[in-house]
Amino acid sequence: MIRKALAGAAFAFLIAGGPAAADVTVHMLHVSVAGQPVWSKVAEEYNKAHPGVKVVVEYLENEAFKAKLPTLLQSNDKPNIIYSWAGGVMKAQIEAGYIEDISAAKADFEKTIYPAPLNAYVVDGKLYGIPNELSQVGFFYNKALMQKAGVDPASMADWDGFLAAVKKIKAAGITPIIMGGGEKWPMHFYWSYLVMRLGGSSVLNDAEAGKDGFKNPVFAEAGKKLKELSDLQPYQEGWLSTLFPASGGMFGDQKGALDLMGNWVLNTQKENAADGKGLAMDQIGFAPFPSLPGGKGKVTDTLGGVQGFLVTKGSPPEAVDFLKFLETAEQQKEAATIGAYIPAVKGTDAFITNPMVAAIAKSVATSTWHQNFFDQDLGPAVGRVVNDMSVAIAAGESSPEDAAAAIQEAWDQR
Q: Could you tell me if residue 276 is left (phi over 0), alpha (psi between -120 and 50 degrees) or otherwise beta?
């Protein structure tokens, strides 16, 4: 696997300079298993076309990236281009003075990138990064296991139908839901979607604006719904310590029927399956998160990301130039064609050949409200508590009300 191949060298650039033949070395650090081979090829093409410049693309596992990035950003050997989920974490990095204002290149990026995703990287009128990929979180399901359990995915359209499906899958001797609780953020997808379905598009904005904050009953009610699901014990044994890559492999190994995850799981389940192949694409289905009776949200409201890249302060101009090279339909064609991710670049939809990826791309494009991941949108301090409390509710370690209060406290102290 790519992760294993790079594990020993992920930070080699911090202690060893670039090749002597290169006048300028640009280091790009990211977390995407699917993106690594694509971006490495783009870097090779760029390097050939730009003698004297060496772009090095480095992968680091998600949680290790998040843990080590703050220290890296304060060092004298920080990477020049870093992966970003935008939102509050990006804003905190900007406020700390770690990120370069690249507004001078905005007109160039506007020619190739869709407007809405690009706007996610604009803060106070200034452009600080560029989106590379779009994602949506939803229920990926194993068609064969669902059929074995006698569950029609369409029956999960509302919350009661979803809970009934979970019970039916479990009664058939199949683990209903795969969960990577060891990294916590996978569980926050449930709490986030429940907040969205209950409170609608204004609830999070109102909380951030100080209108009742997280004291709004919606946040505790979302926790109650999560507890209602978790009380059914739908997750695999050991879910509290299961890390995300392993959870993807479990889905690929057919050890559970459902996985509430972003579309990147299509690659993760394959990369981490025991046979390195996982489920074939035609064996996987996709369903939106269910609606909730009386809720203000719509089933067409989506949770996902606008992942991209930031340029760190003091980086050479070649870093921005490489991103211009990367963010073109020509260079994003392979990613779209193989289904590595959904590019944020104009014209790439024509290259998407995987029917499921195409359907998800259409879903994001037609979404009535596309909400960035809560743990990223709310900033690092609050987002961490959201993740912690989501797991605490599911594990029976916190009441929904106490969890909402803890998030409010974190928001007040940020």
A: left
* Backbone torsions φ then ψ of 39, nearest 5 degrees: -70, -30
Our CA dihedral for 341, 300, 218, 214, rounded to 10 degrees, sits at 40
Cα distance between residue 270 and residue 370, in whole Å? 27
Cβ-count burial of 88 within 10 angstroms (0-12 exposed, 13-18 middle, 19+ buried)? buried
Torsion angle, alpha carbons of 336, 303, 259, 344, to 10: 10
Give the CATH superfamily of 2-134+305-358.
Periplasmic binding protein-like II (3.40.190.10)
Q: Regarding the domain delimited by 136-303+373-413, which CATH topology (the fold level of the hierarchy) does it fall under?
A: D-Maltodextrin-Binding Protein; domain 2 (3.40.190)
Which residue carries 């009380």 as its tokens?
Answer: 231
pLDDT of 18:
41
Residues of the chain short of pLDDT 70, as ranges, are 1-22
Nearest of 250, 121, 225, 122 to residue 175 by alpha carbon: 250
pLDDT value for 150:
98
Q: Distance between CA 356 and CA 264 in Å, rounded?
A: 12
Q: What is the pTM of this model?
A: 0.86
Domain boundaries, the chain: 2-134+305-358, 136-303+373-413
Contact 128, 100 (CB under 8 A): yes
Pairing of strands 53-59, 24-30: parallel
pLDDT at res. 212: 83
From CA 50, how far away is CA 44, in angstroms rounded?
10
Q: How far apart are CA 252 and CA 397, in angstroms?
A: 30
CA-CA distance, 358 to 89, in Å (whole number)?
A: 29
Q: How far apart are CA 154 and CA 133, in angstroms?
A: 28
User: Angle, to 10 degrees, between the axis of helix 380-394 and the axis of helix 87-95?
Assistant: 150
